[in-house]
Amino acid sequence: MARYDTVEVGGKPMRICIGVPEGDGPHASVVVMCHISGLDAFTEDRVDRLAASGYVAAAPDIFHYHDWVEEREARRATLQDKRVLADIEATLAHIDATEAVDPDRTAILGHCMGGRTAMLGAGTFERFTALVDYYGGNTMVSWGEDQGPTPFERIPNIKASVIGFFGLEDANPSPADVDKTEAELKEHGIACEFHRYEGADHAFQNYTNPARYNEAAALDSWDRTLRFLAQELG
Length: 234
Fold this sequence. Notes:
By secondary structure, this protein is α/β, with parallel strands linked by helices. The chain has a single domain, classed as Alpha/Beta hydrolase fold, catalytic domain (Rossmann fold, 3-Layer(aba) Sandwich), CATH 3.40.50.1820. The chain has six helices and eight strands, in the order E-E-E-H-E-H-H-E-H-E-E-H-E-H. It has helices at 41-52, 72-76, 81-98, 113-122, 175-187, 215-233, and strands at 3-9, 12-19, 27-33, 56-60, 101-111, 130-134, 161-167, 192-197. It has an eight-stranded mixed sheet with strand order 1-2-4-3-5-6-7-8, with helices on both faces. The longest helix is centred in the last third of the chain and has 19 residues, at 215-233. The chain is globular.
């Protein structure tokens, strides 16, 4: 079962949900970027599943700079890209210090908003050798006051191989957004593999959201994710 550690980032305490596999390691690791609901049952479940598959998994609470905001869009509006990047950096430093991890075998994975922030991280930190993007939207805009490069604009800096999963009924990212992202990755010679699911909407893997959950797409995409991670991280 996942545990929670607390570190300080930007003068604020930040929880990290951590799952650790059996064995002495060193293990490959996966940074799990949370969706809009934060470190909820779904995110904990992904951390546990990754640990059961042999990875040190760590999910930072990127909402730690403010008190929890109930309204979804207002909560999202509290986020800033530069702070998210500081949270990713702190998460990597924490697992390096506390777990037996191999720094040359590190992936970043995220769902929904987490797909966006995972792309942001992969386009910033060369350490990541694999990126798993589950229907990450809003990649072509910056979050925060400094208006730094968007996740999409950081694509040329990505050193990771990329796999992505998207629902064809999704509006954000739309099928056109997904096509544009895939074309940009290929333009820069980045190995990528995108999967699109008929009849699947946004958040199709989130079993805690019955209105969006699509079992066939959820199971197929997770199976492909584990095979991709095994291939890229060993």
